[in-house]
Amino acid sequence: MLTSVFDNSTFSVLCSHFGFSSFCRHLQSWQMTTEGMLRLEDNCLEVAERNELILAPCEVGKSEQSWVYFETKQLIYSRSALKCLRFNPEMEAVDMAECKTDAENHKWKFEPIPAF
To answer: What is the sign of the dihedral through the CA atoms of 98, 61, 5 and 22?
Structure first.
């Protein structure tokens, strides 16, 4: 599970960003694949035009779906946009911005998914 260091919320804040009901905010389990894709079930996080974030079918090797996680800095960097993911508290959504290592709303951590 991917968690925002800023407010300890799960990465599922994207749930509302993509127009899903607030119910699904607690059901999402994002994974970073070995190919550097942020995956949610059969879809991956992709950088579209104007650095907009969308969900799209996963395509290995597609640069717009290529991400790097810097564990020590807790940043998620887009190889195509050359920016980082951040939680935007004003919009209550995830968006892209210049990477800031000292900004808590730019920091993310991966955590094991608890067993039910």
So the answer is: positive
